[in-house]
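Lab notebook, bench 4. We co-purified these components, and the gel suggests they stay together. Before we commit to crystallization screens, I want a quick structural picture of the whole thing.
Request: model the full complex, all chains together.
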Amino acid sequence: MKLGPTTKSRLALVSTFAVAILMSVMPGPGWAEPFRPDWVGLVLIYWCMATPTRVGVGTGWLLGFIQDVLFGSLLGSHAIAKTLIAFITLKLHLQLRMFPRWQQAAAVLVLLMLNQLLVLWIRGLSGQAPETLIYWTPSIVGMLVWPWLFVILRDVRRRGRVT
Amino acid sequence: MQIGRAQRARRARAREGLRQTTMISVFGREIRVPSHLARLVFFGFLSLTLMVQDHRGQHLEKIRAGLSVLAYPVLLIAALPGRVGGAILGWFVSEATLRENNEQLRAERQLLLVQLQQYEALEQENQRLRGMLGSAARVADRALAADVLEANPEPFTRKIIVSKGARDGVFVGQPVIDAHGIMGQVTQVASDHARATLLTDPGHAIPVLVVRSGLRAMVLGTGDQDRLRIPYLTAAANVREGDLLVSSGMGGTFPAGYPVAQVTRIVNDPNESFLAITAKPAAKIGHGTQALLIWPGVKPPKLMDTAK
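Here is the predicted assembly.
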């Protein structure tokens, strides 16, 4: 089957988001739970940085909303956090692209922690928030996987000709 | 860093694109694309409204249930690799292991049947005595078995999804148990599945009774899979390590008399006003693939009819 360039790039975008969402709800062993990075957040940051004309604040909101529905969490809590990180990434996308990889990873850590902080505040306001420091490990793991994820997604972007 | 010609051209095109898309036509009229900030404000307010509505009001219940039905297949797909893996491992179980298992189950069944004989006699005696006292007879609870769908919940919450929903009469606040004790309660219901919050969720609390001393207490979740905590008991409280805690039935959500937890550790720190007590849930939380939804005994007769 021959696919047009727009269809192909759209397919590349949607499929990476779909895989990220599946990976965020896939059941795993209990001990591994704190080490699961926020795949959706990472992929969102990548696309906001690489293709700010196609992926932005609205996409972030939609992804967060899907997460809220899948997690059964307060509707809008992940949505607002993802909206905010999408916005910040859009504002900084030119700088982020120029950063060396490790510095990019550090920026990603800050973004992911901001995302988690917002969710933590909302959970604190609406019920019981977790009190352990382990709460922050997903962001740190996210920072560690960033360089590899970046390479994979760049490859997807080039093959799918997403601009 | 070297930038190839193709890449440079692509970037130039992207910049062109940026410039071009600042205007869009809506209903034949040219308008400016809203800025990122405007979009942030818009989606921020949308999220806030959703959160307030979801937390306070009941307006979103229906929408949430509908969305949840749409989301269910995604969760099923996400759980697929684990299930397939389990099934493949299942093929390679040796016959000897199966035989052994079978033997064990037979022995267990014999024991349970013997206990059941006594139970029936006791039940009758209990009914008779209650009749003589003139108090209402306790009706047995109706139970419905449901599959537990493993799905990763929001990090640091403890929730499960069960494969029965509003269609089967599941309601919010319904107790969920397994063969060993109370697991939690249903908190969201969609038509074909429901979400239950476990005892171990940091936001969950259940009123209990210490079987040995009759002391009433509260058991709170911690977020750990096998640790619960009991607050507000002073050093004078009659509680020991190893004590069994059963549901007290206060508050009306959970029926009385089901095992909840066992006290594992009591720390008496003289600097604190209360004891630091930890307990282990009686139910095998996080191991089983089956759960029972129960309809506590004293319910409208209509529900009891459907049980037959």
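Residues 95-133 of chain B form the longest helix (39 residues). Worth comparing against the SEC data before the next meeting. The two ends of chain B are 76 Å apart (CA to CA).
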